Amino acid sequence: METEEDFSIVAVDRFVQATRDSGYKGTASAISELVDNSLQAGATAIEIRLTLTSSEECPIQIAVIDNGRGMDPKTLRTALRFGGSTRFNDRSGLGRYGMGLPNSSFSQARRVQVFTWTGADGDVWASELSLPKIASGEVTEVPKPGLVDRPDFARHRTSGTAVVWTECDRLDVRRVSTLEKRLSAALGRRFRHFIFNGTSIEVNGAAVDGIDPLFLEQKALFSGASEFEVFEREISVRGDDLAHTGKVRVIFSELPLTE
Predict the structure, then answer these.
(1) Global pTM?
(2) Is the separation of the CB atoms in 223 and 216 below 8 Å?
(3) Model confidence over 248-257: pLDDT tens digits?
(4) How far, in Å, are 158, 242, 251 from residue 38 at the CA level?
């Protein structure tokens, strides 16, 4: 007897495994996607925790915790779908395409858990994705969020979301101290404008300082340069069947002489 063949547009198990190799240059880039999600949710304080595990293969666990608006169960479930973001094509942050949470997570880990809450004494909802379960066909859709006991990281935050990566088998490095330094430098540069405007980002309790590549911003970790020249040019870009006009601004800075 013939078995019915699967001609679905996407072979889910292979697709999810293939996405592990797309879109992110490393651990800092993947975590930046989560930080960007937090900022779009109105977070003013973002904490990144790196903790050791007992696993030799996956020695580090990562959690990104914010004080943003949090999500209701339906929004949480949607956020764990590939391409299921409620902010698809949103230009208010650095990302746009809604592949962020699941794609960035699986680029670094085999399991991602999401906890979210919308009130100081409100319910905490959680759901998760497991790469091995998806690959085996055991899981074919995002599990319905369930109520969980309030975790420690939610006790002092009125609202917020926590993304926890476990079974992290693809991190750039295997030492917490090295990863701390790399994340602080990368996040300080990428999110410098948010940091300069008062957003708090911490890695294992240490504040991330904004890093200005031009050394012009006085609030930056390093400064002291002077603006040398500014070049502006107006360009037109076609997208969504419409032409958009914008300006490209290039700033040159001159570093001070030191002995």
Answers:
(1) 0.85
(2) yes
(3) 899 999 988 7
(4) 15, 30, 29
